[in-house]
Design brief:
Number of domains: 3
Largest sheet: 9 strands, antiparallel
Number of strands: 18
Distance between the termini: 13 Å
Helix content: 25-40%
Number of helices: 6
Shape: elongated
Length: 341
């Protein structure tokens, strides 16, 4: 695996952990402080309500602000207490707890350490959840280092090729040809003859859209349900972005991997273009490069400004794997992460 992909994987796999673990530590520290500052010598007594004022707090929740009076060892103490019970009124007697060492410290709970304990437990849950997520993601990615499923006891490692070797394959051009909300993408050869395409035949605002995939070489058509894209990220980090859609009800990346396909992203060698090296069960099958909308070289030469766009690609593909590499390019058009999984 190249350095680019190691870095990508690290950030993506540890994204939840790098958010949850620090948050959990902060909550635990805050909980410990509350626990240590809370008195543990609370004694039950009865107080009389001398005034009641119902209001709303900053969270727009109703509160009953009470003035109370109670006696400790013959000494009368006055204090205030806010409760959610709005039925309590002047003259009512309520149960409270005061600190034996300082009767001015009161609570409506005997165990005032409870909040601190809850925070400590919540922080620990966040830390465990973050670590579990990272371990799960790392194990899943390690499995992707082999282009299984394992067949006949063999494990297949990803094969890569140099740019010169990769471009010995036939070159194809992938571009957007949709109109309005109905997206469409076509793969052409150098003579602009259609080779493969995917066209939306039915747009659904809720639920999956319907696409028709056409293999022009064999004249076959296949209908697929393409769900709407879901994207999550942590701290606005590019590398930790996780974006996918459902391909016939399955996560598009899981579907891609289930076919034995793997991809390594090279995001440094041809900036601002991204390069994707694709393999099928360990054997190199194609190289994909992002392109401007002038995907054919002769068109690009006539335009000075050529900005890479996720809807346009040039690809050098093994002739037996056109469908598989097309699938990758289609996925890249739908997701919001330029760094493929």
């Amino acid at each position: 695996m190249n350095t680019d992909n190691k870095l990508i994987r690290f950030f993506r796999n540890t994204g939840p952990a790098r958010f949850l673990v620090p948050a959990g530590l902060f909550i635990i520290i805050f909980g410990i402080i509350m626990f240590l500052l809370s008195p543990n010598d609370m004694i039950e007594t009865e107080a009389i309500v001398t005034n009641s004022d119902i209001s709303y707090n900053i969270n727009n929740e109703v509160e009953n602000n009470l003035d109370i009076t109670f006696e400790v060892d013959g000494v009368i103490h006055n204090n205030t207490l806010s409760l959610s019970d709005t039925t309590i009124s002047v003259g009512d007697k309520i149960k409270i707890y005061y600190s034996e060492s300082d009767p001015n410290v009161i609570s409506n709970m005997k165990d005032s350490n409870l909040v601190g304990i809850i925070l400590i437990v919540a922080g620990a849950v966040l830390i465990v959840g973050g670590i579990y997520s990272a371990v799960k993601n790392i194990k899943k990615d390690k499995a992707l280092d082999y282009n299984g499923p394992v067949e006949e006891g063999r494990e297949f490692k990803t094969e890569t090729k140099t740019e010169e070797e990769a471009k010995k394959n036939q070159e194809y051009y992938f571009r957007y040809v949709g109109k309005g909300v109905k997206m469409a993408f076509i793969l052409e050869d150098k003579d602009r003859n259609p080779v493969y395409e995917a066209r939306m035949t039915k747009f659904n605002l809720i639920g999956p859209c319907i696409y028709e995939f056409t293999n022009h070489e064999y004249g076959t058509k296949t209908e697929h349900k393409i769900g709407h894209t879901t994207t999550s990220e942590y701290n606005n980090e590019l590398f930790s972005t996780n974006s996918y859609f459902k391909f016939d009800g399955t996560n598009c990346w899981d579907y891609f991997h289930s076919k034995g396909l793997r991809v390594q992203t090279d995001f440094t060698s041809k900036l601002p273009k991204l390069v994707y090296n694709v393999s099928n069960r360990g054997s190199f099958i194609g190289r994909v490069e992002t392109s401007s909308m002038y995907v054919h070289e002769e068109d690009e030469e006539n335009h000075k400004i050529n900005i890479p766009n996720k809807y346009y690609y040039r690809a050098w593909i093994d002739e037996n794997n056109i469908e598989n590499v097309f699938l990758l390019m289609f996925i890249l058009t739908q997701v919001e992460q330029p760094l493929a999984r």
